[in-house]
Design a protein that fits this description.
Distance between the termini of chain B: 34 Å
Number of strands of chain B: 10
Largest sheet of chain B: 6 strands, mixed
Strand content of chain A: over 45%
Structural class of chain B: mainly beta
Shape of chain A: globular
Helix content of chain B: under 10%
Order of helices and strands of chain A: EEEEEEEEEEE
Helix content of chain A: under 10%
Oligomer: heterodimer
Number of helices of chain A: 0
Radius of gyration of chain A: 14 Å
C-alpha cells in the first residue's frame, strides 16, 4: 500500500525552527518528485515546495523562499522540510504529496499524507 | 503566478442532484488541471487529473472537462459521501496554485 506519514509538527515561537518529516512506503520513493502543500486553519491549499527524485532540483513558493529547505534521504525513504525564521502566517497543516506525471507539465498529486499541524505563536 | 478562480465558493444541493463546479485560470494552462476532494479533518484526495482523466478507484459519477483557461468538475448524481470541499489545481507552471475551494453542502 502506498503511504505517506508526516511527523514533526508542533508549537513553536515566532522566529523559531522546526523540521518536518514525511516517511514513504509502498513505492519506489526515489523515482518520484515530492511536494509540500500547506493549509492554514479554515483556508485553502497552498503549494510550498518540491524536490526531484535525486534531490538535485528544488523549488519554493516566494512566501517561504530563503526560510524553508526541502530535502530527501532516499536510503531512508523520507522527505524533509526544514523551516526556519517561522512566522505566525506559517501556521498551517503541512501535507507531503507524491507527484505522478502524465507528460510534460502534467503533474498530479496522487498520494497525500495525513498532515502535521504547525502552530507558530508566542 | 497563475491565479485559479473557482465558482461557486459554496453550493447547496441534494442527494441525486447533478452539479457542476467551474475553475478558471488567469492564463492558458493547456490541460494541466487537477481536481481534489477534501473532507473535514482529512487530506485532499485526487479525483480527476489532466482535466478529464478519472483517478483509479474514483466513482464514474465524477467527470472533468475543459482546456485552456476554463474547466469544470461534474458530479452526475450526488451521493451522501460527496458532500465535501472541492479544489482545483494547475500543474502547468510554478507555483502550482490551487483555487480557493468550493464547499458542497446539503
Amino acid at each position: 500500500e502506498v503511504q505517506l506519514v508526516e511527523s514533526g509538527g508542533g508549537l513553536v515561537q515566532p522566529g523559531g525552527s522546526l523540521r518536518l518529516s514525511c516517511a514513504a512506503s509502498g513505492f519506489t520513493f526515489s523515482s518520484y518528485w515530492m511536494h509540500w502543500v500547506r493549509q492554514a486553519p479554515g483556508k485553502g491549499l497552498v503549494w510550498v515546495s518540491r524536490i526531484n527524485g535525486d534531490g538535485s532540483d528544488t523549488s519554493y513558493a516566494d512566501s517561504v523562499k530563503g526560510r524553508f529547505t526541502i530535502s530527501r534521504d532516499n536510503a531512508k525513504n523520507t522527505l524533509y522540510l526544514q523551516m526556519n525564521s517561522l512566522r505566525a502566517e506559517d501556521t498551517a497543516i503541512y501535507y507531503c504529496a507524491r507527484a505522478s506525471t502524465a507528460g510534460a507539465s502534467r503533474y498530479y498529486f496522487d498520494c497525500w499524507g495525513q498532515g502535521t499541524l504547525v502552530t507558530v505563536s508566542s | 503566478d497563475i491565479q485559479m478562480t473557482q465558482s461557486p465558493s459554496s453550493l447547496s444541493a441534494s442527494v441525486g442532484d447533478r452539479i457542476t463546479i467551474t475553475c478558471r485560470a488567469s492564463q492558458s494552462i493547456s490541460s494541466s488541471l487537477n481536481w481534489f476532494q477534501q473532507k473535514p479533518g482529512k487530506a485532499p484526495k485526487l479525483l480527476i487529473y489532466v482535466a478529464s482523466s478519472l483517478q483509479s478507484g474514483v466513482p464514474s459519477r465524477f467527470s472533468g472537462s475543459g482546456s485552456g483557461t476554463d474547466f469544470t468538475l461534474t458530479i452526475s448524481s450526488l451521493q451522501p459521501e460527496d458532500f465535501a470541499t472541492y479544489h482545483c489545481q494547475q500543474s502547468y507552471s510554478l507555483p502550482h496554485t490551487f483555487g480557493q475551494g468550493t464547499k458542497l453542502e446539503i
